[in-house]
Amino acid sequence: MPCCHHLREVEIPYLTRNPIDPAVLLAEVSGPGRGGTTLFVGSVRQSPEDGPVVEIDYTAYEPMAEAEFERILREASDRWPEARIAARHRLGVVPLGEASVVVAAAAPHRGQSFDACRWVIEEVKRRLPVWKRERLADGAEQWSDNAGARHPTGPRSSGS
Amino acid sequence: MTTERPIEIQCRLFARYAEVVGTDRATLHLPPTATVADAVRELRERLPGGRALPERPLVAVNQAHARSTQPLTDGDELALLPPLAGG
Question: Which of A128, A136, B7, B40 is spaced 20 to 30 Å from A103 by Cα?
């Protein structure tokens, strides 16, 4: 099973428990022929639907998430052969305002870089086996998903 | 005709589904003709609180998204995935 990024020379996991530095991803995709770069940063936020979120605890089916990221970036590479794309998703507790996901796409022209970046983040949201447990200002916790559903949490399970 | 031995499937549950049934792993022994749907049915019947799991959850087999009609083979890892929330 692929576990890491095989499109680069050095294998770097897509999942990280540390803050994501967008500059690192920009450096990974830069190149003399790639004149257009798009950077997407998704951050933990508050919203009327979710309430006063103070942090989100992200968990994943980690080996599958690594493999799925690899599949998404391979498909992106087939669609935009001249683009170079880097992506990370953070796991563990992410405070309000910090980045949970970052995608950088560089290509010879801006159109390809915008399109590739947009496509990758949409596929990440649609396919990556990642879940979020939101903690609110009053201490309440809820599961929240990309279809807009929210459920109160139960006891924490022992596994990851 | 030979007697077909059952296949062993390692099951994993995540996030809210693990909370609902109180475990994140289960092992199933199923007929060799079993599909993903058969395994899900078995989990819903066998696990305490399993009825709270959806009849047709999002599933992965061996770390790739799969359909409910996909046949299973001995040693497969089946995962029940709550609605995704990446990003």
Answer: A136
Distance between A88 CA and the closest CA of chain B, angstroms: 10
Q: Which residues make Cβ contacts (< 8 Å) with residue B61, sequence separation at least 6? A: B36, B70, B72, B76, B77, B78, B79
Q: Do B60 and A129 touch (CB under 8 A)?
A: yes
Q: What's the CA angle centered on A14, arms A10 and A18, to 5 degrees?
A: 105
Spatial separation of the C-alpha atoms in residues A43 and A30, rounded to whole Å = 23
A7-55 pLDDT, tens digit per residue, is: 555 578 999 999 999 999 999 999 999 999 999 999 999 999 889 999 9
ipTM of predicted assembly, 2 dp = 0.94
Average pLDDT, chain A: 92
Nearest to A81 by CA among A118, A114, A109, A107: A107
How far does chain B reach from its first CA to its final CA, in angstroms? Answer: 52
Which residues have C-beta within 8 Å of that of residue B34, sequence separation ≥ 6? B7, B9, B71, B72
User: CA-CA distance, A111 to A122, in Å (whole number)?
Assistant: 17
pLDDT in tens, B15-66: 999 999 999 999 999 999 999 999 999 999 999 999 999 999 999 999 999 9
Interface of B with A in 4-33 (CB under 8 A): 12, 14-16, 18-20, 22-25
Tokens representing A12 are 């770097």
